[in-house]
Structures are given as structure tokens and as C-alpha cells.
Amino acid sequence: MKYLLFILFGIQILAQSFEQDAINYFKKQFPEYEKFELQLQKNSSLNEKLVIDYTRRINLERGTAFIPVIKTKNGSEIQSIVLAKVKLLKKILVTLKNIEKKDPLTKNDFEEKLIDVTSLNGNPIQAKFNLDGYRAKTFLRKGEILFEEKIEKAPLVNVGDKVIAEVKKGNVVVTTEVYARQYGSKGDLIEVVSSKNKIIKARIVNAKKVMVE
Fold first, then answer.
1. What is the 3-state secondary structure of 131-167?
2. Are 85 and 53 spatial neighbours (Cβ–Cβ below 8 Å)?
3. C-alpha span between 79 and 50 (Å, rounded)
4. Which fold is adopted by the domain 89-153?
5. pTM value surpassing 0.70
6. Is it true that 89-153 and 162-212 share their CATH fold?
7. Any idea what DSSP says for residue 22?
8. Are 70 and 21 in contact (CB under 8 A)?
9. DSSP code, position 210
10. Domain residue spans in the chain?
11. 152-183 pLDDT, tens digit each
12. I need a surface site. Which of 89, 140, 163, 206 has the fewest CB within 10 A?
């Protein structure tokens, strides 16, 4: 009886060790999650040994983690996977009020909440995200989770804005006033029209200047 108890105790220790290795590997691969819960669906026999296969990545699919392992049985090693049910939590932004389409976004419009994102459709915005220069792409209702798909960069230049266009010719810089024909943010290539109604391409430097390419 003592021998049997020793064997069972040894198996328990090994199982706990494998579970901790799986947790550590998951944490290393997915540091973006504030918290997570991992429940292994492991069915191994007494003469079978499992170790994490660190040469392969863990795959995530809708609440299930596919953990790569090396399975040793009767002296033979094979690659395999162990399934685990996961619950993933992130600190994300939730609206404190209704926000109209195209309104600029600030951190004061949101609160941080630790939310289970395992089954969410879309990409929720994490609390550490810098909202400077962004606006609402659609109407946002109070209490709504903020998703990447519902925000956009606010344009520095709007259609009809008068800006200064710079043209470099060797060491000479020529400037002229032009009007934007497209919306754009810093670095965007947009169409502008000159006073002679010539349409040219220029890259946005800031809200008042573009560089002709």
C-alpha cells in the first residue's frame, strides 16, 4: 500500500510540474493579458511522460489553447498537443458617455475595466493605448467596449484646407499655396491642387505643410 501511495504521489507531482510549465510558457507567449485561467484537458497514461515543446508556439482559438508537447511512451518520443480551456482577461477601455461619430477621443471619455475578452469579436483597445490623434469612426454608446475597428486617426488636413506645399529642387526650396483635395494624417500622400488648377501629389508634414513628391 505504501508503494502504491508513493507512485500516486509521484504522478501528482509530475502533473503539477507540467501544469506550471504550461502556465509559464503561456504567460511568456501572451504577456498582453492581465490575467488568464488555464484548465488542462490532459489524459495521459501512467507510462506516458509529457514535456512542453518549446520549439513550437501555443495556438489560441476561441477559448482553447493548443499547447505543443513532446510525448514519451515506451522509450519513443513524438510531437503532440495538449488542449486547455482558457479564460483571458485584459484591462480595456469602456465609454463613460455617448460619443458622436468623428468626435476626438481622450482618456477622460473612458474608464479602465478588467474584462474577459476570450469570446469577444474584434480587437478591444487596451487601457495603455494612446488615444491622442484618434477620433470615433462610428457612434459609441455609453458603457460600450472600445474596439480598434471603431476608431480612426483624425485627419490633420481636411478637404479644402489651404496648406503650404514645399518643392525641393537641389538645394533650392520653392513654396506655394495649395488646397487639399483629400483628407489625410501625418505621412499620408494626398492630392492637392495649385492656384493654376494643377493637381499634384504631396505628403503631409503637419496641418499646415505638405511636401511635393
1. CCCEEECCCECCCCECEHHHEEECCCECCCCEEEEEE
2. no
3. 10
4. Type Iii Antifreeze Protein Isoform Hplc 12 (3.90.1210)
5. no
6. no
7. H
8. no
9. E
10. 2-86, 89-153, 162-212
11. 988 889 999 999 999 988 888 889 999 999 99
12. 206
How far apart CA 203 and CA 188 sit, in angstroms, is: 6
Question: Rounded to an integer, what distance in angstroms lies between the CA atom of residue 34 and that of residue 133?
Answer: 26
Return the pLDDT at 23.
Answer: 92
The predicted pLDDT at position 213 comes to 85
**Structure confidence by residue, pLDDT tens digits, 33-66:** 999 998 888 665 556 788 999 999 999 998 999 9
- The CATH number fitting domain 162-212, selected from 2.30.30.760, 1.20.1250.20, 2.30.40.10, 2.40.128.110: 2.30.30.760
Query: What does the mean pLDDT of the chain come to?
Result: 87
> What would the grid cell of residue 35 be?
490575467
Q: Residues 6 or more apart from 161 whose CB is under 8 A from it?
A: 179, 180, 207
